[in-house]
Design goal:
81% of the residues lie in helices and 0% in strands. It is mostly helical. The longest helix is centred in the last third of the chain and has 26 residues, at 46-71.
Length: 79
């Protein structure tokens, strides 16, 4: 991975975290408490971690099912 791509990836993650925190704060919720709840729900137990990995793998495979044919010049609308 090139340095520019890594920097842009980090910038995208930070911008997403900042915007999400801003929306939570405007809505009257604590961004730290929301992050703590998300981490406790997804990594706090074995069942939560397995559920997160199951749902994440399905999203990754769906993204690959669309991206791979697109790189070959095809358009897949089925994903």
């Amino acid at each position: 991975m090139t340095r520019t791509r890594l920097v842009s990836l980090i910038q995208a993650v930070l911008a997403t975290a900042l915007i999400s925190s801003l929306f939570l704060w405007i809505s009257g919720y604590s961004p730290w408490m929301a992050l703590r709840t998300i981490l406790a729900g997804s990594l706090g137990s074995t069942a939560g971690a397995m559920l997160m990995l199951t749902k994440t793998s399905l999203l990754i495979l769906t993204g690959l099912a669309v991206a791979w044919p697109y790189r070959a010049g095809l358009f897949n609308i089925g994903g």
